[in-house]
Design goal:
- The protein is mostly helical.
- Helices cover 73% and strands 0% of the residues.
- It has six helices and no strands.
- Helix 1 (6-26) packs antiparallel against helix 6.
């Protein structure tokens, strides 16, 4: 049995999304100047973005999307246990895969990356705004969090199946 339940981890991640939404709305520079963003960006050789030095329309839109994600996840994790387990058993692998792909894209296609244009000719692409330290750090932390939630929920599913089998056996014995 895990130390921290999967639903507690999801609630914690939802609170993180709400906190990020507040900072993207009020002071996006606070997020872009974080040590974790700087360290991971430098370690991966990703450029730092300065578009988030002041509040802007894209940062406000991102804040509203993170707030919606945080609130909807809080509601979904508060459903009855059976429904919530079924919902998160299908959501967790999808989110894990999405953030894995986003993290890999950000790293592999960065300027000078493994899959970047080898000739050195800069050609802007549709995903150019994703190749920076803030996106990489966010996607990496989300990927780690969703992997932790995925493994925790799988362990809890095994424990719940064992409890159900014991309850059925006790029900048969009482008949």
């Amino acid at each position: 049995m895990p130390i921290i339940s999967g639903f507690t981890l999801i609630r914690t991640l939802s609170i993180l999304h709400l906190t990020l939404a507040f900072y993207f709305l009020a002071s996006p520079r606070t997020l872009s100047d974080q040590n974790l963003v700087f360290i991971l960006g430098e370690a991966m050789g990703l450029p730092h973005t300065r578009e988030l030095d002041t509040p802007s329309a894209p940062a406000s839109l991102l804040a509203m999307m993170l707030a919606l994600l945080g609130l909807s996840d809080m509601v979904a994790v508060s459903l009855p246990e059976e429904v919530s387990r079924y919902f998160w058993a299908s959501q967790t692998p999808i989110r894990l895969m999405f953030f894995f792909i986003l993290t890999a894209y950000t790293y592999l296609f960065k300027p000078g990356g493994v899959l970047a244009n080898p000739l050195g000719n800069y050609t802007p692409s549709a995903g150019e705004g994703l190749k920076n330290s803030i996106v990489f750090t966010w996607a990496f932390v989300e990927m780690i969090s969703w992997f932790w939630i995925y493994t925790t929920l799988r362990d809890e599913r095994k424990d719940a199946a064992i409890r159900l089998m014991k309850a059925r056996k006790q029900g048969e014995d009482s008949l």
